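Changelog excerpt: complex records now keep ligands as SMILES alongside chain sequences, and the structure block spans every component. Example after the change:
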Amino acid sequence: MERIKGMRFFDPHIHMTSRTTDDYQALADAGVVAIIEPAFWLGQPRTGVDTFRDYFNSLIGWERFRSSQFGIKHYCTIGLNSKEANNERLAEAVMEILPSFLYKEGVVGVGEIGFDDQTPAEEKYYRAQLELAKEAGLPVQIHTPHRDKKKGTQRSMDIALEHGLDPRMIIVDHNNEETVKEVLDRGFWAAFTIYPFTKMGNERMVEIVKQYGSERIMVNSAADWGISDPLAVPKTAALMHESGIDLNDIHLVTFRNAIAAFAQSGQIDEADFDTVKDIDQSLKFNGSTVLRGGQQPRIDKQSNIIR
Amino acid sequence: MEQAYYHDRNNTEALLFDIIRQHSTEQALTWIAQQQEKLGEPVSVQRFNLTFTAIPRFTGRQVISTDTPFIEVAPDMPFFIQGYTLDKLVRVWWLLQLPAADRELYVKVIEGLFDAADMNEQAALYSALPLLAWPDAWVFRTTEGVRSNIGPVQEAVMLHNVYPSRHLEEPAWNQLVMKAFFTDKPIHLIAGLDERANRQLAAILTDYAHERWAAGRKVHPLLWRLVGPFITEDNFADIQRVWHSEVNVERDAAALACASSTYGPAQALLAQSATLEAEVASHRLTWETVAARIA
Ligand SMILES: [Zn+2]
């Protein structure tokens, strides 16, 4: 990690709700200055719309604040995930509350949506949410399925085009060697999730960047409650550097491209990456230095003494 | 009939809008006027909510500057706007656009805003508590704000906000002050701090000080401001301990606490230091100067 010291990173897909504050500290230390937290499946199916509401509220409230305490700018995408789209009664109710969240500050897209089992219900709510995105002028963050990935990815893109969305407004996630070419050829953004065992490893990622370059490609960690690595983005940058990939390409796939894609929401101001370091001082009382509230005191991990 | 507002809504609205006008671009003002028009008659709740959310996109979030840190919305009722961002000010103003005659509807709409509010929206809503109609409807909501884990939200409820001291019952008020100490807030910015000081709170805070000392941690000097008027033989030893502190600002706090006490031994203690006694008497030493030094 030494060789990437001083670089700034943007992780456009990470589920911090499932992570601890230690991870926030590690992210900040590794140079991650901003993140996007897509709405997803929490592992335990929800039984009522109120728990969805509370979850969405936590993404624009508590989690955003928790992140700011570590000087990391937190954005989110809001959507009904594909797994829970299969509970139609619930899905209908969630669709009703979605619009009010899509217009909130710092909501940079509709996501993560798309296919899981590729059922008719999944397709129905995927389409409905594409329409919401179009109306709100928001980018779409597409989750592609683990099973039957290639077909699921193609289908996701076909349907998006059918609804008249511009491929430049769509980030297709969880790509691999099999899907990347078509995604890029058709003009979409291609995101890669560096996730141990089930998705991409970062050595494979290095090869992809060598082969396809850095245009419209971005990497993320998708770290969640599974065995995952919140530092996947800086670690991949380090490995790319070691493998002789040009610094500018590294910068594009670990920072700039994701910003370019999601800033189309009009909700990303890079100046905020710095202001969040003073933990929203603008919200506080001008010039009043009495306010120390804010960044969490650091714990000295080298010491065995706890104060 | 019970009155919806206890301040002159129209006057408050005008005062706020003056400041908004000074800080807004032409486009932002046009947008605001359009929203006001589109709100309709009867008001569209959906439009009201969407506008409240959308405000920062059209006004921007620059910090406003004003000559005075507050506007006077009623006698003895300052509404602090110092350090406000423009979007926050417009949000507060926008809340005054909701018709208040139908109490039930009004409360339902405002509660709905709270229920779906992001961090900045929550801060704006809690800051606006003193200006909302039907003031007795927000007592529970205020205690929810105090329970919040989010710094800017806590601050919106606790600091420069006249609503809690006017409307919270003693236990809830004591919770607010206690939580403010707990979360390291600038205590002196709590409105009504001295007026609402009470014996029970002094006891809670004294216990808290003991816990801090036991853990080898420092005690916030302003804590003694709330104990001073309630010094008795039970807690006088604590005041003596602070008086003998090696830290200047703590000794100052002890002196001020003694000065606010009618307890004979406390007054005698203060008299032991001619210097401190004189500084207190001449107002060179006040709780404000103490607050400024611990910043
Ligand atoms: Zn995910």
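The radius of gyration of chain B is 22 Å. The pocket of zinc ion is lined by residues A 13, 15, 38, 40, 112, 222 (CB under 6 Å).
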